[in-house]
Design a protein that fits this description.
Layout lengths: L38 H6 L3 H7 L8 E2 L2 E2 L3 H12 L11 H5 L3 H9 L1
Antiparallel strand pairs: 1-2
Protein name: DUF5709 domain-containing protein
């Protein structure tokens, strides 16, 4: 005689459903900890302090140390304004030479 049919349902011999293998139970209760689960809490309602404690900020400022983050261009411009020089005046730019016509361009304009 073979094994009885009830022994075929022994837990050790049953395979797990592949969809159940990856399910992780939550570490704690999610909704049962919150206010308003019982009828009494729902009737009383939450206080303003309780509601404010649950608030999360919509946005956060990007900070670098104690200063508010500024792009590199804005910092360079701010530094030049503080020092009182610009890139054209400090000699590091070719912008002024492009704005003023060179000797060859002046001669060409004078002859035309």
């Amino acid at each position: 005689m073979g094994a009885e049919p009830a022994e075929g349902l022994d837990e050790d011999t049953l395979a797990l459903d592949p969809m159940e293998e990856g399910i992780e139970p939550p570490e704690r209760w999610a909704e049962a900890d919150k206010f308003g689960v019982t009828a009494g809490e729902q009737r009383r309602g939450e206080t303003l302090d309780q509601r404010l404690a649950q608030e999360e900020p919509d946005t956060t400022e990007e900070r670098v140390g104690d200063e508010v983050y500024q792009p590199e261009e804005a910092r360079a411009r701010e530094y030049a304004e503080r020092v009182g020089t610009s890139a054209d005046m400090s000699g590091g730019s070719v912008a002024e030479s492009l704005r003023e016509p060179g000797e060859a361009e002046r001669v060409q304009r004078d002859t035309s």
